[in-house]
Task: inverse folding
């Protein structure tokens, strides 16, 4: 099967062959060792991986921008107004914002813990970018395909509360500290239901890799139908995990200036904002993968298109929930997490076990 | 349903169904409506709202009707109106109001005060300019073609009559019912300045029948024609001995 890796491997082999030929062409004897080394397997693999990562990152980065654009336009229509207006259908507003944040000065507060302050932003941005690699777009288009990809993704995802708490703490500002504390409490409260739902999916499919999970769903049934409770639980928890309305307590603009991001400015803030959307994309992608059959669909278009279309539909529901509801209190969010979603996810797990034991699928 | 009729019969916002499903229904309806038709936003420089007939934009003036009574100058809350001398072939040398539109807040008081409805409110509101001098509208620039509806009219009732029970309303500039100028004859020195300054010519110097004991000439006091008077108070201001004062109708 022709995957992104095989295509780019032949490309990088050809590229390195050209480089080796150029080195040979110079007829400098002392370079012949380098020419031989360039064509060895580790170098080819390294270049291939680099190219795959770059292409994958740029692709998903663009889709992250599309998510922001989609949210702005849809929110505009939901609120009976027009969204962004810059460029074709307002798409270039994102680029304008990016350029603007790039031109801003980078300021670190005087009383902040400078090392931690910088590290926290990098931790959040880097983990969000890493997460992109964990999720394949199709059996052909992926960066990593390990057996434990789902577990790896969830593990990287749960690194975020740590970075957020550090960022809030090191800013040395009451708003950011409260925001960081809220974020940590909320993310931990909603992490458990998410994991329980993921366990139920794993019980049903018997696989921890996305390609395995989607393959099982292609063979049997989309998991949204047997595990509907799990879908709802996961959806609600996913909104909370990506810190979106109505669970946007960590950056409640009305009470905490910008939450834990208050002291961040310039391009770091822009990247943190982008990573918020990337995390929302990850959650949409997880809903698509685990419950909606991933890239499963009729064969007349590419699998990637099915996958992205489903992701965008899930994100539409994210936007819908965002415009329809108001922010809830911290105690309500914790009550929802621990006393509603956790029992629901356990019920869902029991359903999954029952279905598996009765050998329905 | 009109919004005034809507009531919280049940505490909808406290229930999950009200909090989640009802709000989602409302927003989705809004999405469909805004997508099928169009959002209510007006893309201003390219589209414009239809302004109502009584829209109060910048003030405009009809120079022929103006009598230079300067009531607009006195009422202007931002003090952006000033009387400036102009010279035109039709009118000759006259004084007419000039408006600093940059300071104008478009309240329309000048048009409301105007006794001859020469000052009126126009629907013009796009007044941006590149420098402040362009915002200074001299009387020539301030001119605007008159259309019925541009002038500001009002009617009023007197408090003293309302107390009696019957409230009769009077139109703006009712010649029978407005403030009057009263003369304190002891102070008058017969200088005739009030008669010279009156823009409507409603002041006439009438003989009192007495003779000045020193010069043996007849003493003349101003006599006010209330039907013509517009209560511009210029005579009160110009009087050197404070002999004139305003008597308000209440």
Result:
């Amino acid at each position: 099967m022709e995957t992104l890796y095989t295509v780019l491997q032949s490309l990088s082999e050809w590229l390195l062959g050209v480089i080796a030929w150029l080195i040979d062409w110079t007829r400098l004897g002392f370079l012949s060792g380098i020419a031989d080394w360039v064509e060895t397997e580790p170098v080819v693999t390294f270049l291939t991986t680099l190219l795959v990562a770059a292409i994958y990152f740029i692709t998903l980065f663009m889709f992250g921008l599309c998510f922001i654009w989609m949210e702005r336009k849809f929110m505009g229509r939901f609120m009976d107004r027009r969204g962004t207006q810059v460029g074709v259908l307002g798409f270039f507003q994102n680029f304008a914002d990016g350029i603007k944040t790039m031109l801003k000065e980078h300021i670190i507060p005087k009383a902040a813990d400078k090392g931690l302050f910088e590290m926290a932003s990098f931790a959040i941005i880097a983990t969000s970018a890493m997460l992109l690699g964990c999720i394949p777009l199709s059996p052909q288009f992926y960066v990593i395909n390990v057996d434990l990809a789902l577990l790896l993704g969830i593990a990287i995802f749960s690194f975020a509360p740590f970075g957020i708490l550090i960022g809030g703490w090191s800013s040395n500002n009451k708003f950011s500290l409260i925001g960081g504390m809220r974020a940590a409490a909320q993310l931990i409260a909603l992490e458990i239901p998410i994991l329980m739902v993921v366990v139920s999916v794993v019980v049903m499919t018997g696989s921890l890799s996305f390609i395995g999970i989607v393959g099982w769903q292609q063979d049997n049934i989309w998991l949204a139908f047997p595990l509907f409770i799990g879908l709802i639980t996961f959806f609600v928890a996913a909104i909370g995990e990506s810190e979106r309305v109505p669970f946007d307590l960590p950056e409640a603009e009305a009470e905490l200036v910008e939450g834990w991001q208050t002291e961040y400015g310039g391009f770091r803030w822009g990247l943190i904002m982008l990573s918020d959307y990337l995390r929302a994309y990850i959650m949409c992608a997880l809903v698509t993968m685990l419950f909606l059959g991933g890239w499963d669909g009729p064969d007349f278009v590419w699998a990637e298109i099915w996958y992205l279309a489903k992701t965008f539909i899930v994100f539409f529901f994210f936007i819908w929930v965002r415009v329809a509801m108001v922010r809830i209190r911290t105690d309500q969010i914790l009550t929802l997490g621990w006393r509603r979603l956790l029992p629901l996810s356990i019920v869902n797990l029991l359903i999954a076990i029952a279905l598996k034991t009765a050998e329905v699928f | 349903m009109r919004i005034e009729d809507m009531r919280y019969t049940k505490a909808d916002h406290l229930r999950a169904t009200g909090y989640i499903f009802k709000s989602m229904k409302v927003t989705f309806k809004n999405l469909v409506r805004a997508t099928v038709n169009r959002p209510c936003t007006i893309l201003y420089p390219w589209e414009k709202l239809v302004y109502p007939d009584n829209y109060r934009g910048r003030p405009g003036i009809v120079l022929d009707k103006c009598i230079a009574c300067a009531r607009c100058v006195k009422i202007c809350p931002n003090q952006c109106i000033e009387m400036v001398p102009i010279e035109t072939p039709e009118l000759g040398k006259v004084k007419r109001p000039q408006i600093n539109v940059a300071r104008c807040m478009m309240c329309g008081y000048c048009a409301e005060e105007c006794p001859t409805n020469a000052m009126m409110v126009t629907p013009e509101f796009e007044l941006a300019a590149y420098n402040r001098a362009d915002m200074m509208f001299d009387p020539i620039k301030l001119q605007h073609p008159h259309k019925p509806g541009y002038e500001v009219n009002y009617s009023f009732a007197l408090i003293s009559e309302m107390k009696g029970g019957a409230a009769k309303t009077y139109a703006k500039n009712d010649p029978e019912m407005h403030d009057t100028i009263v003369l304190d004859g002891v102070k008058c020195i017969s200088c005739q300045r009030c008669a010279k300054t009156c823009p409507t010519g409603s002041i006439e110097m009438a003989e009192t029948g007495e003779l000045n004991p020193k010069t043996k000439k007849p003493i003349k006091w101003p006599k006010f024609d209330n039907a013509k008077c517009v209560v511009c108070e210029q005579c009160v201001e110009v009087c050197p001995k404070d002999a004139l004062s305003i008597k308000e109708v209440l």
